[in-house]
Write a structure and sequence with these properties.
Layout: H1 2-15, H2 21-24, H3 39-60, E1 66-71, E2 75-81, E3 95-102, E4 107-118, E5 124-134, E6 142-154, E7 157-170, E8 173-184, E9 190-202, E10 212-222, E11 227-232, E12 237-239, E13 249-255, E14 258-265, E15 268-270
């Protein structure tokens, strides 16, 4: 899988003119195309970004764990109970259970198992993860996860993720960095890949539960489009934990020397 993905990325980079600045990082260049990124392409890429944002937010919901000690704080277990349930709790409402070995400095290494963990964003997480992180006392401040063929449900579809997630929590929110490949669970077809895709969030803005302020940035390679796109946010995007990943605001998509926005208003995207 990884070897094939590397080869595919190399082909796409060559097709985009050698993978220069305009193809991957959204930085300014002396030569810009006057044509916008086609609206149809932005719509497809927006679906990729939405799914990625929801996955990141669900992983970050892991912070509120019940930590139990087996031997002092040397061997530690952590139970993450889903904050939300659904009519299908086996798919969207189970727990995540971790076991760690912890050293004197608070570093932990171990593994985790997700049993339909639901972070109230309509995503169910299922499968095994190799885990490491930092647990200064009885709460995690960061967590590194590695997955192989990890199952992600978003009714009525399901996906597989092979890659890594790095999560950092702060008193006001979280940051999740994702790198890896997303494929269709049924067909096995590779859909898109993520390179250093960061979702940074301030949660419960203004003291209102469920209202988040977000920024997104990173590189998405969409296989169906044959495009490498850089995603960036100049401001913040609001989310209200409703049916949409975003509520209001905008982010920028840059690919092949063109840059165009995706604009959200009342939870609906447009592609001006």
């Amino acid at each position: 899988m990884i070897k094939n993905l590397v080869l595919l990325l190399a082909v796409l980079l060559a097709a985009c003119g050698g993978g220069g600045e305009n193809a991957t990082d959204g930085s300014s260049s002396s030569t810009w195309s006057s044509s916008p990124v086609p609206a149809a392409s932005r719509a497809v890429l927006d679906e990729d970004v939405v799914l990625t944002r929801l996955i990141a937010g669900t992983f970050a919901a892991n912070r509120n764990a019940f930590v139990f000690s087996m031997t002092g704080l040397r061997d530690v277990g952590a139970l993450f109970a889903s904050p939300c349930t659904s009519s299908t709790p086996g798919l969207y409402g189970g727990d995540a259970v971790f076991s760690f070995a912890r050293d004197a400095a608070g570093n932990v290494v171990g593994e985790g198992n997700y049993f339909g963990f639901n972070g109230c964003l309509g995503i169910g997480l299922h499968g095994f993860a190799i885990a490491s992180g930092v647990m200064p006392s009885y709460s995690l401040s960061s967590l590194n996860l590695a997955f192989n063929d990890f199952l992600i449900g978003r009714w009525p579809k399901s996906y597989r993720f092979t890659g890594t997630a790095t999560i950092h929590w702060s008193p006001i929110g979280y940051a999740v960095l994702l790198t890896g490949a997303i494929s269709d669970d049924i067909t096995g077809r590779l859909l898109f890949s993520l390179t250093n895709f960061l979702v940074d969030a301030e949660t419960n803005v203004g003291g209102i539960a469920g209202v988040d302020e977000l920024s997104v940035s990173g590189v998405i390679t969409d296989i169906s489009l044959g495009l490498i796109a850089s995603v960036s946010t100049s401001g913040r995007i609001f989310s209200d934990h409703g049916p949409s990943a975003f509520y209001s605001g905008q982010y920028q998509i840059t690919t092949s020397g063109s840059s165009s926005p995706v604009v959200y208003d009342n939870g609906m995207p447009t592609y001006p």
